[in-house]
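FIELD: query
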Amino acid sequence: MPASPAAAPVGVRPAWSWGLAPALLVCLAAPAFFVARIPWLGWAFLAAGLLAALLVERADAASRAVTPDDPDLRRPSLVRDLSLIAVGLLIVSAIPLAAELDNLAFVRFGAALGGAVVVPYAISRWVYRDRAIGFPWRGGGRWTAFQWTWLAVVLVLGWLILPFYFITSGVYQNWPVVDTPDLIARLFVGVGAVGIWDELFFICTCFALLRRHFPFWQANLLQMVVFVSFLWELGYQAWGPLLTIPFALLMGWIFMKTRSLAYVVSVHLLFDAVVFLVLVHAHNPGALDWLFPL
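FIELD: result
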């Protein structure tokens, strides 16, 4: 997929740095919160990660012996950027992520997931004043033929893989039974809204912040840990990580190449459209047999 001509270049990062340790600690808070579901362990990872980041940053500054007019003073702060990820994780971890479709669940999810995007953005823009988080909607302009083709490929892959995963593993039962028009409509809205949020938080926030400090492959692996952990508690369990790990990595790669939030959201929503149809099919045997033979 060709890179967007408007994509902002990222400076060359060292292949390895001590900053990886605090970044990994902060990202490991996600499996502690969402997989192990041990809040105090997540808090400990976040605290240790931020403390380690502070020590690394101070040691780096001391070794460079920066002066007030040194350009190194304008380098992104690892402590600040990791603190933004930590704030988002703390907000999301404040609610249970089990899929529910009642009015209270919609309000709870809306407040927590919305806050996890808005609060770090607001801190970055108006407290840190570094505008480290952005949401580049169009990226580099018109989509290429390859990008349009990839959207069709996503639908085919979803149709081939998702029914087998959800039905044979039984994980469709992690979502409420949807057997009325109202519940089906709520499921459609919920699946789509969470899919959009995934890209706003995991890619435009976590991945973008990590890219300020690490090479692409390292930042992508780190955001994948957070992304997949969230999806686990949301319901993508059993052998779901075999699907969600490559999916999370692919989303980071697509965003790196296109710098287009519109495109990554389109890819995600097409995949989630199949998820929605599979869940309706699984909870209503016979309703969509013409679409899914399984």
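FIELD: remark
The CA atoms of residues 128 and 198 lie 24 Å apart.
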